[in-house]
């Protein structure tokens, strides 16, 4: 049902007061209806209208028909200017409002009610009485000349050739944009309100039903900038004085249309339907526009897809590939809701379609619903369903696919549509793309149908085998290599691919380096011609040397390979070097340097023993292992002569120079923890060069002031200086002189404060105290 309300200026209203008020209504109004309608109750004459119009002039004032929603219900409101009120003052108007339930407008466009018989031009008794009862409206009947045929004839009579249809196209794009945004308005400007109402009706018929229901409008407003409706009519004099904040305004009173931007396919289709009196096309366009979700049915892209779909149904060859793809997406997403006539009419043109659309049609055409009633087909007759046979289109698309991702997408789309893809064709397409470097392998395989995954992989491997280095590098990303590593059985047949895959996996994933090493060695065994490349690959995999345990496990697993491949043969020495580097550094706080304990750890010694037992004695690894053993013997020796012998062995081990230097530095650091007598005896037992190197390391390890002999020296620095000077004094007692060490000792002991501290330190040993005095005297005698 629908309720009515009358509003005007009355001498006496229902409450007994005078002025503007509701003077009549239908009993049983829904709660809040009056409050909801009230904001819409206003009328201001155009600025050019007579100030004191007579009755004939009043009839020419524009009528405002408004459509909006109040509390979820449709509101239709018609306002007419009346001129004088009960007191003789000008400015009175009469508003007739209708608030309806949704079902009352089913199958009806609100714009059709422009000249509806339900409207009353004046209050029931001229406004003299108040509180009159208005009947319920059981039916909202449209007015005359509001049907599509009448509007189409009217459009054909407007303006010069093509003007009305060009204007309509521009207008449709503007309205669709406003409805999609949900804010803003489109303004229609004309001297007479009649053409405005007709244009609103034409726009309403051109939209899907749901979108038309959302298109609020008013045929006349004296404030178009502030109007809340989406489509607003006004007069030229109002528009001339407006602020013009509106983006879209159209003069629809017969003036020729000026040039503008290109219009959309939807807008062109609407204009063509009106020009050709093609009401079935308008209905079909509205039906297809309803396929989108409710909130998006007025979105420009949705309406464009509906228009493109209608064009395809009619065999229009101007539809672009991009439009076809959008239509295919629409059909795929909305397949179950697409009318049956669409599938049948599309099937007739399937051979000329692009792949995606042909697949969509193939997958649905046989299951299309019953034909449309006779005479309503948009192509002049449905005909029997045609088998699109998209196999050739699939083949052509695979041949032209620009990359592996598109190959996988084509295969997946064909599979979804029930079209078999020849594995050989898929393999050939994958091979071509991989050879060109156009392949995101993980993404493509994740998208490909399970039945074609093997064919695509075979094609990719064949393409990479024939590709140049740059193309291969582009395809074999880390993720791609990880994926291929999971399918190791394929790799030995294509060593050009296997090598970079294994290098990538081993280089990035330390936990897999041992397993990758095994795969590389198996590859070399199966394909001996790859041995040189495998050696280089092993070097890259083991760019960072393993731990001692890891190296030992690798040696035990591939003992023969360590003798055959330089990259593996060098691993033990590199492992020892990693452990040694920095192990001799002085921390400055008395703590052991990082890695010191690993040098003599059981795992390191086991590795050294295994290397010496299994690898050639003249090889770098064996020499490095000998140096490691000598280092361990030196730092664990209980007697100084044994430590000296071990350091001599270290010096003569033939280990790589840097490793030997690091081991000696580490040994020197460890031996500073021994007492001065042990250290003096150790120096005495060394040959001259080794003695000088060890003494130099001990001196260099002293803190800065103690090393330079400067004062004052504090705390632990004093103890370390005193111990090393004691080593010098004990060495002198043995009749052994180390020139550089003695030079340092004289400089450190000759200073007044240092001499006092050292004298106190050796107070309990008369021999050492006497030797100290001799050392100081020598320094002073030399002027040091």
Q: Shape from CA axes?
A: elongated
Count of helices? 39
- What structural category characterises the helix and strand content? alpha/beta
Largest sheet, in brief, is:
10 strands, mixed
Query: What is the radius of gyration?
Result: 49 Å
Helix content estimate: 40-55%
How many β-strand runs? 10
Low-pLDDT runs of 5+ residues are 366-388
Strand order of the largest sheet: 6-2-1-5-4-3-8-9-7-10
- End-to-end Cα distance: 121 Å
The chain-level mean pLDDT equals 87
Beta-strand residue percentage: 5-15%
Can you lay out the helices and strands and say which pair or pack?
Elements lengths: L1 E9 L8 E7 L7 H5 L17 H4 L5 E7 L2 E12 L5 E11 L31 E2 L14 H9 L6 H19 L4 E4 L3 H14 L2 H6 L2 E2 L12 E4 L1 H6 L6 E4 L13 H11 L3 H11 L10 H14 L7 H13 L6 H8 L7 H10 L26 H10 L3 H13 L6 H13 L5 H7 L5 H14 L2 H7 L2 H8 L9 H14 L4 H14 L4 H11 L6 H10 L1 H6 L1 H4 L1 H10 L15 H4 L2 H13 L5 H17 L3 H12 L5 H15 L4 H10 L2 H13 L3 H5 L6 H19 L5 H12 L1 H10 L4 H16 L3
Parallel strand pairs: 2-6, 7-9, 7-10, 8-9
Antiparallel strand pairs: 1-2, 1-5, 3-4, 3-8, 4-5
Helix pairs in contact: 4-8, 8-10, 9-10, 10-11, 10-12, 11-13, 12-13, 13-15, 14-16, 15-16, 15-17, 16-18, 20-21, 21-22, 21-23, 22-23, 24-29, 27-30, 27-32, 29-30, 30-31, 30-32, 31-33, 33-36, 34-37, 36-37, 36-39, 37-39
């Amino acid at each position: 049902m629908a309720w009515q309300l009358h509003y005007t200026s009355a001498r006496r209203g229902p409450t007994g007061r005078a002025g503007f008020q509701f003077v009549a209504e239908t009993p049983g109004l829904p709660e809040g209806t009056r409050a909801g309608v009230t904001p819409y109750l206003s009328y201001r004459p155009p600025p050019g209208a007579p100030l004191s119009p007579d009755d004939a002039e009043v009839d020419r004032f524009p009528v405002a028909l408004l459509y909006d929603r109040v509390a979820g219900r449709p509101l239709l409101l018609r306002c007419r200017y009346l001129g004088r009120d009960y007191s003789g003052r000008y400015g009175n108007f009469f508003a007739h409002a209708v608030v309806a339930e949704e079902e009352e407008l089913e199958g009806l466009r609100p714009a059709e009610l422009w000249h509806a018989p339900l409207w009353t031009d004046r209050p029931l008794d001229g406004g003299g009485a108040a509180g009159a009862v208005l009947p319920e409206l059981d039916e909202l009947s449209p007015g005359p000349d509001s049907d599509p045929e009448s509007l189409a004839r009217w459009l054909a009579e407007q303006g010069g050739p093509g003007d009305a249809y060009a204007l309509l196209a521009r207008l449709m794009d503007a309205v669709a944009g406003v409805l999609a945004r949900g804010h803003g308005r489109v303004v229609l400007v004309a001297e007479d309100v009649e053409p405005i109402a007709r244009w609103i009706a034409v726009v309403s018929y051109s939209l899907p039903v749901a979108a038309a229901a959302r298109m609020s409008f008013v045929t006349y407003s004296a404030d178009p900038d502030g109007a809340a409706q989406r489509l607003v009519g006004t007069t030229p004099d109002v528009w001339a004085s407006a602020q013009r904040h509106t983006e879209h305004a159209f003069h629809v009173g017969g003036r020729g249309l000026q040039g503008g931007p290109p219009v959309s396919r939807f807008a062109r289709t609407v204009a063509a339907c009106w020009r050709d009196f093609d009401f079935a096309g308008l209905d079909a366009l509205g039906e297809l526009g309803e396929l989108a979700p409710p909130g998006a049915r007025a979105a420009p892209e949705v309406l464009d897809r509906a228009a493109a779909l209608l064009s395809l149904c009619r065999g229009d060859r101007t539809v672009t590939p991009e439009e076809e793809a959008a239509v295919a997406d629409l059909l795929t997403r909305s397949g179950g809701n697409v009318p049956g006539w669409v599938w049948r009419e599309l099937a007739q043109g399937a051979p000329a379609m692009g792949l995606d659309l042909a697949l969509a049609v193939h997958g649905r055409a046989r299951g299309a619903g019953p034909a449309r009633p006779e005479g309503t087909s948009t192509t002049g007759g449905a005909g029997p369903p045609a088998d699109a046979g998209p196999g050739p289109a699939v083949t052509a698309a695979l041949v032209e696919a620009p990359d592996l991702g598109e190959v996988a997408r084509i295969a997946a789309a064909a599979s979804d549509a029930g079209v078999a893809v020849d594995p050989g064709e898929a393999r050939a397409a994958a091979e071509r793309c991989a050879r060109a470097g156009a392949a995101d392998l993980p993404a493509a395989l994740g998208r490909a149908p399970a039945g074609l995954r093997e064919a695509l992989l075979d094609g990719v491997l064949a393409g990479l085998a024939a590709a140049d280095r740059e193309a291969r590098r582009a395809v074999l990303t880390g993720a791609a290599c990880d994926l291929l590593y999971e399918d190791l059985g394929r790799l030995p047949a294509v060593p050009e691919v296997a090598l970079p895959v294994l290098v990538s996996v081993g280089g990035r994933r330390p936990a897999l380096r041992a397993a990758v090493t095994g795969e590389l060695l198996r590859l070399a065994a199966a394909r001996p011609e790859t041995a040189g490349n495998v050696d280089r690959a092993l070097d890259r995999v083991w760019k960072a040397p393993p731990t001692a345990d890891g190296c030992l496990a690798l040696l035990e697993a591939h003992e023969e390979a360590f003798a055959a491949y330089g990259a593996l043969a060098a691993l033990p020495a590199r492992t020892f070097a990693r452990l040694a580097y920095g192990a001799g550094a002085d921390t400055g706080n008395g703590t052991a340097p990082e890695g010191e304990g690993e040098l003599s750890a059981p795992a390191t010694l086991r590795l050294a023993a295994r290397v010496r037992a299994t690898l050639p004695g003249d090889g770098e690894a064996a020499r490095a292992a000998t140096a490691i053993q000598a280092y361990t013997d030196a730092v664990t020796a209980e007697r100084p002569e044994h430590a000296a012998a071990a350091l001599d062995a270290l010096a003569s081990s033939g280990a790589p120079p840097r490793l030997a230097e690091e081991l000696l530095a580490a040994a020197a650091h460890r031996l500073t923890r021994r007492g001065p007598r042990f250290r003096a005896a150790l120096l005495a037992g060394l040959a001259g060069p080794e003695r000088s190197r060890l003494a130099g390391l001990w001196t260099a390890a002293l803190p800065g002031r103690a090393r330079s002999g400067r004062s004052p020296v504090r705390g632990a620095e004093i103890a370390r200086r005193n111990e090393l000077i004691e080593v010098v004094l004990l060495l002198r007692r043995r009749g052994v002189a180390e020139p550089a060490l003695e030079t340092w000792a004289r400089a450190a002991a000759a200073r007044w404060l240092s001499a006092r501290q050292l004298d106190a330190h050796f107070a309990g040993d008369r021999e050492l105290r006497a030797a100290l005095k001799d050392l100081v005297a020598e320094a002073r005698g030399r002027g040091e």
